[in-house]
Write a sequence for this structure.
C-alpha cells in the first residue's frame, strides 16, 4: 500500500512538473527569440499586411508591444494568419503564443476552449452593411432580407437572435471565410452583410464602389474583442493583460512616444512607477523595470495605436466612442500600477 501511495505521489509530482514546464510561455518565447502571434487573415485596421508585407493594425500593435516589453524590440514577432475556424485550435496546440485576432470574449469560449481572455482591446458590436440603393435606413426594415454571414462565429448566432426576437423573416447565406463572405455580398448573392461594426468599416474599404454602401446605425450585440492566451500560465496571462493596461495608463497620464524620455524625469509618483523609476512592478510579472517605457517608446500608448490603426489617422476614421478612456466617457480603464 505504501509503495502504491509513493508511486501515485511521484506520478502526481511528475505531472505537476510537466505542467509547470509546459506553462512557462515567457521562457519559451525568450528561448525562441521571438513572439508567435495569431492574427486575422487580413482585416484593415486590426491585422492586415501593408503594401510592403508588413503587418499593421490595433491587434498587431498589441503583439508588438508585448515583444517590446520582453525584448525591447517590437520587430521580434512572427505573425500567423488564422481563420475564425482555426484560431482557437492554433492557440490550444501551442502554434501561437498569443491570439490577437478580433475575437469576441464570451462565457462559453472562456469556459470550454482551454484559454483565458486577458483584456478587451476594442469594444465593438454587430451591425449591418447594405447598399444605398436598397433604401433601408434601419435594421428594423430588413424583414425578408437575405443576409451574408461567416459561419462558426458569434455573428451567425447574433443575427439569428435579432431576427427571431423582432419577429422578422430572413434568409441566411453563410460562408467559411471572411473574404468569401464579402465577395458573395458584393456580387449580389445577398442583400445584407453582417459582422462586427468595426469589420464593416474595414471591409467596406475593399469594395469597388464603397461609397454606394452604408452601415446601418443599430448595434445588435455586445462584442468585446479581446486577446487570448492558453490556460495554465498565470505569469503569461498577467504579462499580456498588463501590456494592454499599461498602454491605457500611459495614455491617461499623457505619456506618449514623443515625450516618454522627458517623462522619465517627472516628479509624479504614478508616472515614476509606470516608467520604472520607482518600485519593481515590471519585475513582479517577469519583465524589466522599464517595461512600459519600452512599450511607449517603440509602439506608443493605446490612443496612439488606436488613432493610427482605426481612428482619425487611418482610412477607417472610427470615433473613439466606447473605446475612449473612462475619464473621457469611454469604457477603457487601466487598473493602477502600484
Amino acid at each position: 500500500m505504501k509503495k502504491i501511495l509513493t508511486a501515485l505521489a511521484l506520478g502526481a509530482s511528475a505531472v505537476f512538473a510537466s505542467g509547470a514546464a509546459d506553462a512557462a510561455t515567457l521562457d519559451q518565447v525568450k528561448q525562441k527569440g521571438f513572439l508567435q502571434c495569431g492574427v486575422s487573415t487580413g482585416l484593415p485596421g486590426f491585422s492586415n499586411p501593408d503594401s510592403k508585407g508588413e503587418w499593421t493594425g490595433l491587434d498587431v500593435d498589441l503583439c508588438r508591444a508585448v515583444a517590446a516589453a520582453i525584448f525591447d524590440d517590437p520587430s521580434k514577432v512572427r505573425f500567423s494568419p488564422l481563420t475564425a475556424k482555426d484560431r482557437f485550435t492554433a492557440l490550444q496546440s501551442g502554434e501561437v503564443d498569443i491570439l490577437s485576432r478580433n475575437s469576441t470574449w464570451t462565457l462559453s469560449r472562456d469556459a470550454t476552449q482551454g484559454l483565458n481572455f486577458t483584456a478587451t482591446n476594442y469594444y465593438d458590436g454587430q451591425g449591418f452593411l447594405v447598399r444605398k440603393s436598397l433604401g433601408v435606413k434601419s435594421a428594423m426594415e430588413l424583414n425578408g432580407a437575405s443576409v451574408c454571414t461567416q459561419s462558426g462565429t458569434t455573428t451567425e448566432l447574433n443575427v439569428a437572435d435579432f431576427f427571431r426576437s423582432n419577429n422578422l423573416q430572413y434568409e441566411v447565406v453563410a460562408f467559411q471565410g471572411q473574404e468569401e463572405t464579402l465577395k458573395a455580398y458584393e456580387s449580389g448573392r445577398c442583400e445584407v452583410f453582417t459582422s462586427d461594426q468595426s469589420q464593416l468599416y474595414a471591409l467596406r474599404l475593399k469594395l469597388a464602389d464603397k461609397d454606394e454602401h452604408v452601415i446601418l446605425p443599430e448595434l445588435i450585440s455586445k462584442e468585446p474583442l479581446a486577446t487570448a492566451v492558453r490556460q495554465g500560465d498565470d505569469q503569461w496571462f498577467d504579462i499580456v493583460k498588463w501590456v494592454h493596461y499599461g498602454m491605457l495608463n500611459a495614455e491617461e497620464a499623457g505619456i506618449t512616444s514623443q515625450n516618454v524620455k522627458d517623462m522619465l524625469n517627472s516628479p509624479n509618483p504614478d508616472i515614476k512607477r509606470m516608467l520604472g523609476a520607482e518600485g519593481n512592478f515590471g519585475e513582479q510579472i517577469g519583465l524589466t523595470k522599464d517595461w512600459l517605457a519600452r512599450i511607449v517608446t517603440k509602439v506608443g500608448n493605446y490612443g496612439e495605436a488606436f488613432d493610427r490603426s482605426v481612428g482619425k489617422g487611418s482610412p477607417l476614421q472610427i470615433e473613439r466612442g466606447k473605446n475612449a478612456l473612462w475619464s473621457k466617457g469611454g469604457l477603457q480603464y487601466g487598473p493602477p500600477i502600484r
About this structure: Residues 1-21 have pLDDT under 50 and may be disordered.
